[in-house]
Each structure stands twice: as C-alpha cells, then as structure tokens.
Amino acid sequence: MKTKTAIAIRHVHFEDLGSLEPLLTAHGYAVLYLDAAHRAAWSAGREAAENADLLIVLGGPVGAFDEATYPFLRNELALIEQRLLQRKPLLGICLGAQLIARALGAAVRPMPQKEIGFSPLRLTAAGKASPLAALGDVPVLNWHGDQFDLPQGATLLASTPACPHQAFSYGHQVLALQCHLEADPAHLEYWLLGHACELAQAGIDPHALRRQAAVCPGKLPQAALGVWQAWLQQIHPTPSGGSPGEGEP
Fold first, then answer.
1. Pairing state of beta strands 108-119 and 140-148?
2. What's the CA dihedral at 184, 6, 3, 231 to 10 degrees?
3. Residue 110 forms beta bridges with which residues?
4. Full DSSP string of the chain
C-alpha cells in the first residue's frame, strides 16, 4: 500500500495544520512541514513538495506581493504555479489562499479594516454544494488584513460582510480559504501571543477574542472536521465502504 504524502508550507510555527493534521494521518498521509523562510530546509524539501500528493500553504503575517522584502515568497509562488499547471491537490489558508489567487492572476490588496475574530461565513449556492456545507452557520476564525479578487475560472464558495471573497475552488483539486478552519479555539492563546503587536495596532482587545472563542469551543473543530473529510474524499476518493487510507495502489 502506497503512503500518501502531505507537505505543509509553514511561515510561523503556531499557524500549523491544527485540526487537519490528525485527520490527514488517519487518512494515510505522511505529514511533513516545510518552513518557508529556512533556506536549507527549502532546498532539501523542494523536490518532495513538488511530488507530494497534497500541498498545503498555511497562513503568515506577510503579504502575497511582499517578495521584495521576503524573497522566499518567490519560491512559494513558483511551486504553487507548478502545482496549478499540473492540476495537483492544493490547499491554501489565508496567506496561502492569497498566493494561490495571485498565481491565478487575481489582485490581492489590503482591506479597509482587518477582519479578525469569529463569525460565520455566507455560503454561495456553490458553497452549499461543496465541502464547506459542513460549516453551516458555525463561526470560523478570520485573521487577515488582505483580500483577493476572484480569479478567472474559480468558483466563489463563501463571503462575509467585510470580505466578499472568502473562499474559492479551482477545479476539484484546489481549495483556497481566507478563514482558519484548522485553528482550534482551545489553542487561541498561541495566536493572541504571536500576533500581539498586530492586535494592538488594530485596536482589538484579546479579551473580546477569548469571549468569542468560548462560545464555540467544540462546534468549530467538529464542523471543520466535516469540511476536511469531504474535501479529502473529493481529491483522493476512497472506494465505497473503504476506510481512510484504503484503496491506494
């Protein structure tokens, strides 16, 4: 039985795969991280990322067009463009979604005001027929100051009042999410500490975010699990009646 490989490009350590990681393992994936800013690690892991069964580009506190200041972004864009051309499974979260949108030719620009906090998504008709349907009206964590235009050929799945393009799919193999479905509200304190300066600059009280997280400690992980289950089945279907990880040559 072949072991599938999932490689996650990580920008800051506390923005990891979260609730998605144990599910990937249960579905038979070997999970590896590739730290974007670590030159030696990138050189060693680039070929594996190119050949991975699933590539995930996680969030981070930089912009999708910041390669003049953070040159490692050029490497990520090249890898994303290659995956798109080869139509290989690709998941982008926050910065990762913005980089996918840029690679597809869409504009990415600052929002009038950062969107940070827990709130439900407004699913489009396509979104209600997609893996995101598992979310229902469960509040999800948004933590971004940039937004993307919808790329040509992409399907809009969700929006919020502050951000009209929250999620899109591109074919069946690509999913791009502004929101952090992977984030467990029980681990919010890592985010509050890691982004303390950003919260202060935006005038957002960490206590308010804690109160929001306390309302949905079990709902978001459970709903996110439904999304991840449905999407993994979409990109790597298992035979009817099979269990995760079965059915691979």
1. antiparallel
2. 70
3. 146
4. -PPEEEEEEESSTTSS-TTHHHHHHHTTEEEEEEETT-HHHHHHHHHHHHH-SEEEE---SS-TT-TTT-THHHHHHHHHHHHHHHT--EEEETHHHHHHHHHTT--EEEEEEEEEEEE--EE-HHHHTSGGGGGTT--EEEEEEEEEPPPTT-EEEEE-SS-S--EEEETTTEEEESS-TT--GGGHHHHHHHTHHHHHHHT--HHHHHHHHHH-TTHHHHHHHHHHHHHHHHHSPPPTTPPTTTT--
Contact 113, 199 (CB under 8 A): no
Token readout for 216 is 């949905």
Q: Is the pLDDT at 240 greater than 60, yes or no? A: no
More confident site: 243 or 86: 86
- For residue 238, how many other CB atoms are within 10 A of its CB? 16
pLDDT tens digit sequence for 154-183: 999 999 999 999 999 999 999 999 999 999
Query: Could you give the CA distance from residue 16 to residue 33 in angstroms, rounded to a whole number?
Result: 9
- Give the closest residue to 142 by CA, choosing from 90, 212, 240: 212
pLDDT > 90: what percent of the chain? Answer: 83
Q: Which two tokens stand for residue 108?
A: 């990415």
Note the pLDDT tens digit of each residue in 207-221.
999 999 887 667 888
Residue 51 CB contacts under 8 Å (≥ 6 apart), including other chains:
5
Query: The whole model's pTM is what?
Result: 0.93
Rounded alpha-carbon distances, angstroms, from residue 200 to 12, 31, 127, 193, 196: 19, 34, 34, 11, 6
